[in-house]
């Protein structure tokens, strides 16, 4: 299990991981994407 976390952290520290993190951060700040995320969470909560 520790090796998986190690691989993830190594990736996130790499240039490619930093670019991906920046893309995700920009996408998360978009109000339309925030609304989509809220709707997806509501759908998941209704299934229980």
Percentage of residues assigned to helices: over 70%
- Quote the average pLDDT: 93
Shape: flat
Gap from first CA to last CA: 29 Å
Q: Give the amount of beta strand, in percent.
A: under 5%
Structural class: mainly alpha
Radius of gyration over C-alpha positions, nearest whole angstrom = 15 Å
Structural commentary:
The chain has helices at residues 2-13, 15-28, 31-47. It is mostly helical. Helix 1 packs across helix 2 (15-28). It is flat and about 35 Å long.
Summarize the structure.
The chain is mainly alpha-helical and 48 residues long.
Layout: helices, strands, pairs:
Layout: H1 2-13, H2 15-28, H3 31-47
Main features:
48 residues; mainly alpha; 90% helix; 0% strand
